[in-house]
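Protocol step 4 of 6: structure prediction from sequence.
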Amino acid sequence: MPEVVVIGTAVTDIQAVKIPPVSSWAEKQRIGSISMMTGGDGANQSLRLAALGRKTGLVACVGHDTAGRMILGELERRGVDISRIRMHESIPTGTSLVLVGEDGERHTFSSKGAHGELRKEDCEGLLTKDVKALSLASLFSMPQLEDDGLCELLKDCRKQKILTFADLGSDKRKQGLKGIQRFLPLLDFFLPSEEDALKMTGTSSPEDAAGVYAECGASSVVIKCGARGAYWKTADDSGWVPAKAVIPVDTTGAGDCMAAHFIHHCLNGKNIEDACRAACIAASESTLFFGANS
């Protein structure tokens, strides 16, 4: 049975790498490569955790189609428990188009799919005695569950002393801070990206954004700041952890990689600063390879 349960998105990534600047686009031109692979915050985290030796299960929704079967096959082959992934009969698997520039930075375009159809029923009986951690890989990406059932699930985690972690997806319903405020006091660790945190809180620095989340009841905040590392804050302390200096070829999935390693090291007993330090190194090194899960 899983010791870590991840709830989030599982989609097909169609990735094109070494894309030239938009200003030089032509009707037809050669690029580095085009690949189709498993992606999505939930799948990315799950695969990383499984690679670290954690018994990991993913709660997600894919379409009853070729893409959905491909995702299930890869997850299972790489050690992720897929028994909680539902195949939707009428909505296709979500797809993301990931364009990676020559500098390693990426732009993602996504279509609506089954990954947004998670609901309360998908989480019934989820918290077995083996579960040590629950990760919400992509808040804002599970609207039905967030509206009905997620608060109760997090309260049950607290009662059972299960560590809880959460990251952010795209705020498609434009809810802003009020969309997650009720969840923050129920989380052990909140791990948004710098871009999402600043936009959501209307602040200009990770320090100020973390302060806003703390005022809303978040006990421990880790703001992922890309090449600058991460800023962490608890009720008693705060600080910066640097990223490892690398020349990236692809930043896709680096935030998901960091979250997975952070969870892993927290479960190993590391404090928040040391867990951030190890996770930042892993995230930096993940950018040396193409794809979120290679």
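Step 5 (inspection) to follow. Residues 272-286 form the longest helix (15 residues).
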